[in-house]
C-alpha cells in the first residue's frame, strides 16, 4: 500500500475534523493499518477555516504530516483557492460544487458531489460530510468501504446510526454512478 495522504479542508461546522477522524479510524482499526491525524482551525468555532490531514500506511508512520496529498476533499472556496495549486497530476480532488467553483482550466478536473444539497434533501445538512465520505470510498482505494462504514457508525452520536448509514450509502451510490474509481498515489 505504501503511504497515502489525505487533506480535508473547509470551514468550521462542516465536520472536517470528524471526517478525518473517521478515515483514520477506518484505516487503523477496521483495515488493520496505521494512521495519523493533524488538524488546524481558526479561532472561530464555526465559519472559520478548518483543515485536517490524515496519513495512512500499512506500517508505522514516521512523519505524521501531509506533504503531497493523494486525496484532497475541498468543502469551501477559500480552501480551494489555498490548496488547489501544487498538487500532483495523479491527486484526486473532490469538491462540493455548491460550495466551490473550480477553475475550468484545472486538470484533471475535480470530481464533484453536491453533498450539501443531498444532505438537505435527506433532512439534515449536518450529514454532508458523511455523504462525502461515502463518495470518497466509492471513487478511491483509500480504505475499504466496509471499514469506512463501520468507522462512521461508531463515530456518530448514539441514535443517529441509521440516518448516518443512509447518508453514507447515498454518497457511496452517487460515487459508483458518477465518479471514477482510482488508486490513490503513494506519498
Structure commentary:
There is one protein chain. With 187 residues, this protein is an alpha/beta fold. It has a single domain (3-178), classed as Pyruvate-ferredoxin oxidoreductase, PFOR, domain III (Pyruvate-ferredoxin Oxidoreductase, domain 3, 3-Layer(aba) Sandwich), CATH 3.40.920. It is built from six helices and six strands; from the N terminus they run E-H-E-E-E-H-E-E-H-H-H-H. It has a six-stranded mixed beta sheet with strand order 2-3-1-4-5-6, sandwiched between helices. Helix 2 links the parallel strand 4 and strand 5 (92-95). Helix 1 (16-30) packs across helix 5, helix 4 (128-139) packs antiparallel against helix 5 (145-155) and helix 5 (145-155) runs antiparallel to helix 6. The longest helix has 18 residues, at 161-178. It is globular and about 40 Å long. The mean pLDDT is 91.
C-alpha Rg (nearest Å):
15 Å
Approximate shape:
globular
Order of helices and strands: EHEEEHEEHHHH
Distance between the termini: 10 Å
Count the helices. How many? 6
Uncertain spans = none
**Largest sheet composition:** 6 strands, mixed
The structure class reads: alpha/beta
What is the tally of beta strands? 6
| CATH-derived topology | Pyruvate-ferredoxin Oxidoreductase, domain 3
**What helical percentage do the residues reach?**
25-40%
Strand content: 15-25%
CATH class: Alpha Beta
**For this structure, what is the CATH homologous superfamily?**
Pyruvate-ferredoxin oxidoreductase, PFOR, domain III
The whole-number mean of residue pLDDT values reads 91
CATH architectural designation: 3-Layer(aba) Sandwich
